[in-house]
Amino acid sequence: MLDRSPAGETEAVLIAVRSGLTRFADSRIHQNVAEENAELLVRVAHEGRVAGVRTNSLAPAELDTVATRAVEIARQTPPDPDFPGLPAPIGAHPILIDRVAAATASATPRSRAEAVRTFIDASGGASAAGALSTTVIGRAVANSRGVRAYGARSQTDFVAVLQERGGSSHTSAVDADLRRLDFAALGRHAAERASAARGPVDLEPGTYTVLLEPEAGGLMLAYLALGTFNGRAVLEGRSALSTRIGERIVAPFIQIWDDPADPRTVGLPFDYEGVPRGRLDLVRDGVAVGVAHDSRTARRAGVTSTGHAMSQPNAFGPIASNVIMAPGRMSREEMIASTERGVLVSRFHYVRVVHPARTVITGMTRDGTFLIEDGRVTRALRNLRFNQSMLEAFAHVDAVSAEGRLLGGDFGIMRYAPAIKVRAFTFTSGTSF
Q: What is the CATH architecture assignment of 9-194?
């Protein structure tokens, strides 16, 4: 593509995906899907104007016209004075990364079916529905300034909902390696949670101590990565950090960072511009110390890119996509035992942003909400709706669990999240289920 392009600057990104998906409902597999696709993204900068073309037709005759079409589009596009130019190589190039697990890459409908059967057998007869997918993703980036980067990684995603006589539970798991997921343990835990969730009672809305399990707290980390630790949102005044970098924003023992090389997550150490990614501290000892940048936002901010460019064009800006929250010292059981009265939340559902700059979200609990009394989980609760500032919730964290979980699926952002105990979390109303 670079040889074919008549533009002043050209960037080519190839994304190749091979995936398989097994779906099940009522504890029976009903669908297997397989997909292979390769997509080429070409971005050109020509006479001060920037444009791009995206195609998954990679026949030579098609490739001959892609860059030319991009230049023709650029000529009809207004000048882009904020375009910083394509990035030059940083460090050693080419970047070559292989993070593909053999078991995931070689997974078949039979091997996925065996994993699903293990989960269903361990779930104790509850009705199970969900999906198991195995994926290998390759990404290659090259530009006319000499950037060359290629990486491949694998990913296994599992999600299931169990229903048993009015009780429901939700479980999910993600890992690079299919073999590392314990489907029997996932089934047993989901069955126990569904059984415990039967016969829910009402709880008066109000402000409570809550124990947010990893899926609940981890969803808030995804929303913070998307709109708060986002360099574009900071520059445009939409982020809570637009005026608070260097200030304490959460509890003083909280550490949050982004690092695709951390063994607790799944990622590639370069972005869609081929810029290397390393560890980026976002919160250190409760203080906001960093945000994600791509080349465009870095130039506006007067800093260097942190390697968080998404595929172009991109309306969201740079996103930290391998977020790690440091675990604490307490077990989940110790956190429950230390709670006189509170609410245990398994996960959040149907979450939406209410006020980006104040990090206020709204949503409801789902698939296992429980009352804690005198250090014990005593009964299931009907779900509750909340309006809550995420940063205020993290500012009120009293304890963080020693164990966490890797979560995926929300905006493509991986998060390693422990459970957190929040001393003040506001529920605004109940629900009918």
A: 2-Layer Sandwich (3.30)
